[in-house]
């Protein structure tokens, strides 16, 4: 097995103004130790990434010695000024990536991948590297594609041609853009073409979320009017000294009072008096339920009244405050 493999892919971005046609990307493979399969996997990843970015892959034709010139210029302070005479005309981009076998921390063989991009208008190199352990074809494809995509995005941000303008009412709203903090409104965010997510926060207002689609070379405007968030009294909590209030107890008392009132009324209706003749009780038997009905009816009124009072207390109005841009609105809120 070969102990070292080297693959170089050179892509140089030319600073041409935006146009309707797709940018042409010249891809140069260098490194005789790289296998044909490695070249195929890396090239497929690059072509797919460029296609997603709306760019066209082109195989450049280099004159003898130009390959060495291009690779040597990458390490120079002004790489594009050094290599532009060696790059074929008509290309908008040229990309440099290298793949080499290294030893991982566990002693196994891993692949070190580096991707570099030279942007003519910046005349500098933007790049990054990554180590791929247990590197299958799928992992190699993902690593090369991700590094390529990230460098293209980094260049787009540096160029500042694609922006998102975020404005708000009121101003001073904190902005989180794709998970990163970007200060406060009003603000202009330099980014890359594609979908993005924004989150806007300001104390006293509802949190707002927006989706933004950035257009290559254009400006996307996001205007947000923040909505005031009503501030209520702190919620009651279940503690031994402060039990949470509810309508369960009032409901039980109201129900018990109603039953007692009905029962007392029935007993009062069913009450019978003794039958007397000449002052002598001649009744064989009779129902003397009047006193029971009166007591039960009175108890039902008391219990029901207590339940009604507790129900009213739990339903009484509570003050609310709603902040506005010019102050606050104070009112009353009831539970229904």
Summarize the structure in words:
With 336 residues, the chain is of the alpha+beta class. It is built from six helices and 18 strands. It has helices spanning 36-52, 66-73, 79-83, 137-159, 248-270, 290-315; strands at 7-12, 23-26, 28-30, 55-58, 95-103, 109-119, 124-133, 163-169, 174-177, 180-184, 187-190, 194-201, 208-214, 219-225, 276-277, 280-281, 318-324, 327-333. The strands form six sheets. Strands 1, 3, 5, 6 and 7 form a five-stranded mixed beta sheet that branches. Strand 17 and strand 18 form a beta hairpin. Helix 1 packs across helix 4 (137-159). It is elongated and about 140 Å long.
Topology:
Layout: E1 7-12, E2 23-26, E3 28-30, H1 36-52, E4 55-58, H2 66-73, H3 79-83, E5 95-103, E6 109-119, E7 124-133, H4 137-159, E8 163-169, E9 174-177, E10 180-184, E11 187-190, E12 194-201, E13 208-214, E14 219-225, H5 248-270, E15 276-277, E16 280-281, H6 290-315, E17 318-324, E18 327-333
Parallel strand pairs: 1-6, 2-4, 8-14
Antiparallel strand pairs: 1-3, 1-5, 5-6, 6-7, 8-11, 9-10, 9-12, 12-13, 15-16, 17-18
Helix pairs in contact: 1-4, 5-6
